[in-house]
Amino acid sequence: MSEQELKALRVRIDSLDEKILELISDRARCAQEVARVKMAALPAGEEPIFYRPEREAQVLKRVMDRNQGPLGNEEMARLFREIMSSCLALEQPLKVAYLGPEGTFTQAAAMKHFGHAVISKPMAAIDEVFREVAAGAVNFGVVPVENSTEGAVNHTLDSFLEHDMVICGEVELRIHHHLLVGENTKTDSISRIYSHAQSLAQCRKWLDAHYPNVERVAVASNAEAAKRVKGEWNSAAIAGDMAAGLYGLTRLAEKIEDRPDNSTRFLMIGSQEVPPTGDDKTSIIVSMSNKPGALHELLVPFHENGIDLTRIETRPSRSGKWTYVFFIDFIGHHRDPLIKAVLEQISQEAVALKVLGSYPKAVL
Ligand SMILES: C=C(O[C@@H]1C=C(C(=O)O)C=C[C@H]1O)C(=O)O
Residue 361 and residue 364: Cα distance in Å, rounded? Predict the structure, then answer.
């Protein structure tokens, strides 16, 4: 390619960038107008709700539907995710609590869902994320709920039994783990490997093959593990990209998770109900009486009405020995007439039924 061709292309890119800049600014001004209209329509004394997850899901879907490349759909949606995040921040920056410390996968999930223009607050434990949301100190919380290799995150499920919380969204993240060390650590001097118990479990086979005799130490998070090894010459951590970058660690081995499709699903929790988008999921908790056929009775209405169950999980109810609650996720919104009818049918048989929330299916 000649110098001249290159120069002409750069002139074109500069002119396109100017147009993009103008268009983004126009869009941001529109979002400000939306804020003004929302405020004007507000009954006196009521708090405005600027963030609309159902609208954001629709915007991202529309972008993906219309995209014709060369950028992939996910990449394009990610760019729009950030534009929307900045536009919303002009109205009101969202405050989001997540399972910290900084550098956890939960933080990465929060950024993937809300974009980077939020005020994010790391919390030391899942239960604290719930409490922070309940206290109204933040607008939303982000917690892990299940991993494709290791299953349910029980702390999160149990927290739903203790707090009244609305699920307003979900996001899925591919989880890649690396073996990380500080500057002066040599491969053969490692005598301890730190990570979160879930991450140690997700890399169990790799660890058995490569470090069978090295002590595995479970700590509160993989970011915490990364933080520790920064100052220790004889230990390694298992953590992801964000933690590696944040603590300036070296990767001794990359992508050491046992399953290449290892993914975690996260939930956004808040207090705001989300209206239907036409492509939603609902999460409920049900407890049935302890009699034969109870689970069958619970599942029949879903089957008879052709409702797609995406997940069912059992946990001790905490209100009696050997009694259980079921966490069920299914496709649909609790305001859909069919879903409404099914929930009514179930509640006639159930000891208790609570809708945790209906929310747009993960777009990104
Ligand atoms: C602009 C609005 O407010 C917020 C910003 C959005 C955007 O930038 O597209 C979308 C939904 C809301 O979170 C709106 O409600 O349309």
Answer: 9
Confidence grade of residue 1 (pLDDT, cut at 50, 70, 90): low
User: How many Cβ atoms from other residues are within 10 Å of residue 319's Cβ?
Assistant: 11
- Ligand 1 center–CA 136 separation, angstroms: 22
Q: How many other C-beta atoms lie within 10 A of the C-beta of residue 172?
A: 16
User: Residue 34 CA: which ligand 1 atom is closest?
Assistant: 1
Tens digit of pLDDT for each residue in 4-61?
999 999 999 999 999 999 999 999 999 999 999 988 888 888 888 899 999 999 999 9
**Residue pLDDT, tens place only, 94-135:** 999 999 999 899 999 999 999 999 999 999 999 999 999 999
For residue 227, what is the enclosing H or E element?
helix 222-230
How many whole angstroms from its chain centre is CA 206? 26
* Residue 202 contacts residue 170 (beta carbons within 8 Å): no
340/356 Cα distance (integer angstroms): 14
Q: How many Å lie between the centroid of ligand 1 and the Cα of residue 59?
A: 9
Q: Provide the H-helix boundaries in 92-203.
A: 105-114, 126-134, 154-162, 197-202
Spatial CB neighbours of 292, under 8 Å, sequence gap ≥ 6: none
Q: Give the integer Cα–Cα distance in Å for 234 and 241.
A: 21
